[in-house]
Structures are given as C-alpha cells and as structure tokens.
Amino acid sequence: MSDKPFSQACENNKQPILDVLQKYFADTRHVLEIGSGTGQHAVHFAEHLPHLTWQTSDQTQYHHGINAWIDDYQGNNLKRPLTLDVTQPWPIQSAEGIFSANTSHIMSWPMVEQFFNGVGNTLQTNGYFCLYGPFNFCGEFTSDSNESFDQYLKSQDPEMGLRDYVDLEALARDAGLMFVEKHDMPANNFILVWQKSVDLSQSTLID
Hints:
InterPro entries: DUF938, SAM-dependent_MTases_sf. By secondary structure, this protein is α/β, with parallel strands linked by helices.
C-alpha cells in the first residue's frame, strides 16, 4: 500500500463523477483517460463499468503510481498507462470515449489547444468527451474558492489557471466536438460533455 499515491480529492469525487460517466459511457466499449494521475479514478471506474476497457495514460513519471493501483485490481478491463504528452504525437489512434479530470487548469493555454485537437483527432464519431474540473463561465468565477485556487495556480506558474467554458467551447468546435451538457459537481466543480459530431449545427451553448 505504501507505494500507492493517494489523493483525498479523488476519493471524494470518484462516485459523483462515476454517476455521470455511467450515463455517457453506457454503450461505450473503450475509454481513454487522459492524465490518470494517482490511478484511483481508473480503478474505481473500471470496477463499476465492467462492460468497457479503461485505458490509462499520463506522463511517464506518473506511471509507477498508476501501475501500483492496477497491480491490486482484480478485473481484466483496466489497461496499464500509455505515455501521453499532449504536445507530442498521441500513442493511440482511436477511442470510443475520452475522460479527463483536473487537467486543463494545470496546462498552459497552448497545451490546452493541443489537448482539444488531440481529442478531436482520437475520439470516434458519436463518442463522448467528459472533462471534469473547475471552470469559469463568461469570465466569471463560480465561487470564491475557485478564484483563490486560480490565484494559487498562477503563483506557481503564470501559464496555469482555470479555463473559461467559452474558450474551451471554441476549441471544441474547431476539433469537431458538439457541446452536450454541463453537470454541476460537488466542491464547485463541473463535468463538461462534448460529443464528436459530423453536424455542429445542433450544438447548444451555455447561456
């Protein structure tokens, strides 16, 4: 157990996130997780979504911790991490669904652009992309705690910070993704859902 990384935030939010993913990934056979982090989410989601294969990925330095969690997993639908850096060619050509948690605010904006471009290139038509984290809407913070978190991130690296839905939606549309829904989550977080579509004219923006 000692070599397993642990995030209390992951422990707290894994079930609320799963409740949403069960809706969008009900008929999905293969999900790519971008930025698997500690590996806690991957184990929980793979266990409760046994009909699909959950493919972990992250930068190489996080693989040991992810593998430590996978080592103790009893199922056969959880795959060891791919090395995925959004600024480099992606190691996977296609995925029926894509999930990512708490990634866009720790990337620089050029990396976020490459992130969405990669999702658009990898996600199969009609597949869902579910992005979890804190976001701004129309330039406004949704809570004082999110504003404080944004200030903290920028103090660590001026390139980091909470992203605005409006800006992400522009990237998504350029990547061929149609906005589906926003889900309010605990602790002032959200899940934003897009679908790979051949017809963006049906997309409905958040007011």
